[in-house]
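STRUCTURE REQUEST FORM
Protein name: FMN dependent NADH:quinone oxidoreductase
Source organism: Nitrincola tibetensis
Requested output: structure tokens
Priority: standard
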Amino acid sequence: MKTLLQVKSSIFGDQGQSAQLGAVLIEKWKAAYPESEVAVRDLVADPIAHFDMSVISALMTEAEDRTDEQRALVSLSDKLVNEIVSVDALVISAPMYNFAVPSQLKAWVDMIARNGVTFKYTENGPVGLLEDKPVYILATRGGMYKEAGLDHQVPWLKQILSFMGLNQVQVIYAEGLNMAEKEASLAEAQEIIASISV
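Status: completed
Returned output:
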């Protein structure tokens, strides 16, 4: 049975354009795999605390020496990593806020990018430890950034995913959503979703 994880990060919840496009892609997935299971990690409805010294201290402390608070932090990180490990594909609904990803999505990445767990350093450089699988990014933006050299969202997402071993990344863009291009851009994104193989 196929399994998929959707990671949502729009402050508008299910009304956000990235979430709505994600829903379209998931319907396509369900049509292709009727018996599949879809898990949802909503980073706004269920926020993850931003990376701080307490988190890094917990991750760097040996298991037997951790406090109850540290064990809880590591347990959350383990859970987030296992959510990725246990599925066949990921859908990341990622709006652009102020030229970058939402801070909620950055907090999620900070909790899953772990030396010795999702990547490791070797004499030949870093190596991703996650088993590669398809990742679909729904990148929504109010303006036009992809061709303007102002995209600090998708390149970063692709780099950090690749750093952890996830290289099968497909990006579906919807730009100009605060401009006259909105309807045409959303229609184009839906056409792309309809055309891709899952």
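Reviewer notes: Strands lie at 3-8, 37-42, 89-95, 119-122, 125-128, 134-140, 168-174. The longest strand covers residues 89-95.
Form closed.
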